[in-house]
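Can't paste images in this forum, so I'm doing it all in text. The chain is below; anyone willing to post the predicted structure tokens underneath?
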Amino acid sequence: MKTATGTFLLLDGKAASEALREEIAHSTIGVKEKLGRAPHLAAVLVGEDGASKTYVASKVKACESVGFRSSLVKRPAEITEAELLEVVQQLNADPEVDGFIVQLPLPKHINEQRITLAIHPEKDVDGFHPVSLGRMVLGLPGYLPATPNGIVELLRYYGVATSGKHCVVVGRSHIVGSPMSILMSRNTEPGNCTVTLAHSRTADLPSITRQADILIVAIGKPGFITADMVKEGAVVVDVGIHRISDATRSKGYRIVGDVDFTSVAPKCSAITPVPGGVGPMTVTSLLLNTLKATR
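Text version of the structure:
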């Protein structure tokens, strides 16, 4: 894309995910012939959180697009932790379910870590279980966390060179930031980066982000990364997604990321949009893990 001050490659997650889903759909045909059924992904949704409902709906739709079977298990926000653990155990024991997720966040009275630990590692297609994370760290086959792996697949699809580059990851969550730093440092392609993991307590953060050849931002603050924090020619991946009130829009809001796209994009060689960047790749990565689970 061209702007008044520069040209950059838009890392379109929709286009990349559509290409990957075509490959998944083709592989699904072989799975059906071998197992006599389609791969089956189940999702557990607790409560009525709008963002969670939208995200789960997108997963169900994605399953349909590649020929997977999907199941949605809905429970009220008032469910007890013991009752939710029972749901998890039922899915663990169901031989017709290849993989499942428990959509986060959960109500405050439920311990998310306890629920995550209860999911059988062989069905942990979100890649959050300690066994999954441990296998990732050791470079063993397993389920990779959906968003970080989606980013890796996005970089692969667009042929973004990573070997020998300095990658700065902003944000250290166990869902995105920490596993992202590991994946980008692995001896693979994409990978082989020198990685700096920064966060909200990092001193003089702009001086760190300006060193990045590849800047991956998952700090959870809208418009946090501005043009003065990015060096010329950097590749920027924006993981954040926020709904901001905007009376000028017909819906009354707009969607933005952790990066101030308008000011940052002209300095980049490549950048992800929000929405339509990392989001579709996260869902597609979940499909890849489910396909892996059937094998």
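The chain has two domains: 36-120, 145-279. The first helix runs from residue 13 to 35.
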